[in-house]
Structure formats: C-alpha cells, structure tokens
Specification:
With about 140 residues, the protein is mainly beta. About 10% of the residues lie in helices and about 45% in strands.
Length: about 140
C-alpha cells in the first residue's frame, strides 16, 4: 500500500514561511493536521520552510510554495526548488505537537514521513480545514 502524501501542493501553497505568524499567538492558523493512527500523537502545522543548497556551500530558506515534487519511482519522492531545480535538503515545519504533552515546536518533514509503527506511517487528515490554534481539540 503506498504511503500517503503528507504535504500536497495545495498544502505547500497555503502554509506560510516560518516566523510569519509568530506575533499571532493562538490566532495563528493551523493549515495541516498530521497524526499516527495507532497513537495519540498529532502534529498541527502552522508554518513551514524548505532549506536548499545554493551551490556555493550556503543554505537558504525558501517558502514551501516554491517547491516542485518529483516522483523518483518505487515510492521515493524528492523536492526541488521550482526555478533553479536545486534539491531541497530539508523541510522544516512549525506548529503545535500533541504528544506526551502539548507544545509548540519544530518538526522535520523527513522524520514525520519516515515514522513507522507496526507497519503504519503518519497520515494527513484529509478532512482538515484550516483553523486557529485556539480552536484545536484539547490535549489528552
């Protein structure tokens, strides 16, 4: 069974860069909800940024909407910066994590997509509609 795409193109177009909502507090908008079906862990994504190598041993952060998804076959996916075709080194997300406790923090897209428990991976809530952090369900 193929893995679910954690960030669709629509998601990447909608998620603003990291720090763009930091002054909004609980009014910051959660654009994507991720969860693991066998646990009580939930990741609520408010912001995201891609890290690319500029070719001169320097890295730069770019908005997620500038990414192009490339299917490499056998379930492998790469992201490239759309205009320069430079590979993405990392996708850094930010938002609320409901795990052992509820806390704001950074998330690694790579770690989320590779998390596997009893054969199941992290999934995207396909019925999620963007809403403020204040409207999230309470942490259990």
């Amino acid at each position: 069974m193929p893995r679910m795409m954690l960030l669709t193109q629509d998601d990447r177009n909608r998620i603003p860069p990291i720090y763009s909502q930091e002054d909004k507090g609980n009014a910051a908008i959660v654009h994507v909800h991720l969860y693991h079906p066998l646990s009580d862990w939930h990741w609520y994504v408010t912001e995201g940024t891609a890290i690319i190598d500029d070719g001169n041993d320097e890295t730069h952060e770019i908005p997620l909407k500038q990414l192009q998804r490339v299917n490499m076959g056998k379930g492998a996916t790469w992201f490239l910066e759309r205009s320069t075709r430079r590979p993405v080194l990392e996708i850094r997300l930010f938002g609320m994590v409901h795990g052992f406790e509820a806390e704001l923090g950074y998330m690694s897209w790579k770690e989320l997509k590779e998390t596997r428990v009893q054969g199941l991976y992290v999934e995207r809530d396909t019925r999620w509609t963007p809403r403020p952090l204040a409207d999230l369900p309470p942490h259990r």
